[in-house]
Automatic annotation (TrEMBL):
Protein name: 4'-phosphopantetheinyl transferase domain-containing protein
Keyword Transferase: yes
Keyword Metal-binding among record annotations: no
Lineage: Bacteria, Pseudomonadati, Bacteroidota, Saprospiria, Saprospirales
Domain 4'-phosphopantetheinyl transferase: start-end pairs: 105-198
Any one Gene Ontology molecular-function term assigned to this protein's record: magnesium ion binding
Keywords: Transferase
Species assigned in the record: Flavilitoribacter nigricans (strain ATCC 23147 / DSM 23189 / NBRC 102662 / NCIMB 1420 / SS-2)
UniProt-listed Pfam families: ACPS
């Protein structure tokens, strides 16, 4: 299936979603992979291989380039697109792959709704975050907190972040029409604030985070 979503995001950037119905062979025929990427793919098994290929195909589609840029990981494991100053972030879950690109720090997460997340919510949510959960959409609300913390972890781009201690989501009422809230990463000398945006796509929850310099001056 072709791209499901490709749109501009404020203040500057792009958001894309690809519904993966293609086979691994389909992607391999259309996607040039560089030697380090081939080595990475060799270590991936099963369905994850198609998801890995799908999200890279999505980013290439979004870039508009004729020649694909390689995915390069920095010393913290954060991906960057070769020969581009824009930040990128990727996520995949089941048949959906999501990507975001912007001049500033960004992060994205997409997750299929699963009931088991409620059993571990206390491990990644603060008490005040748990207290604000919507009574009637509790499962969706928990997924938003998880997705937000994943997105902030990726946007920050360094390891050793504890989801409860270092990533704070400002409690927010669930409002699918508004679809925004804010969060912070607090680690050592870093105190960064992000705007987060969310939506439902079928049975998946999408969350992405954008750092605005004006929020951190």
């Amino acid at each position: 299936m072709p791209i499901l979503l490709h749109q501009h995001i404020e203040p500057e950037g792009e958001l894309g979603i690809w519904q993966i119905t293609e086979t691994e062979a389909w992607f391999r025929d259309r996607l040039f992979l560089y030697p380090p990427e081939l080595r990475q793919l060799a270590g991936i098994k099963g369905r994850k291989r198609v998801e890995w290929l799908g999200v890279r195909h999505l980013v290439h589609h979004m870039s508009g380039r004729d020649e694909r840029g390689a995915f390069i990981k920095d010393e913290h494991g954060k991906p960057h697109l070769a020969h581009s100053r824009w930040h990128i972030s990727i996520s995949h879950s089941g048949e959906l792959a999501a990507a975001i690109a912007a001049p500033q720090s960004v992060g994205i997460d997409i997750q299929r709704l699963v009931g088991k997340i409620e059993r571990i919510a206390h491990r990644f949510m603060r008490p005040e975050e748990l207290e604000c959960l919507d009574e009637y959409q509790r499962l969706e609300h928990i997924h938003l907190f998880w997705g937000a913390k994943e997105a902030l972890y990726k946007a920050y781009g360094r390891r050793q972040l504890h989801f409860s201690d270092n990533i704070l989501i400002h409690p927010f009422p669930l409002d699918w029409n508004k679809g925004t809230f804010t969060g912070e990463v607090i680690k050592d000398d870093h105190h960064l604030t992000y705007e987060l945006h969310y939506r439902m796509i079928s049975s998946f929850v999408l969350v992405y985070a954008i750092e605005h310099e004006s929020l951190n001056d």
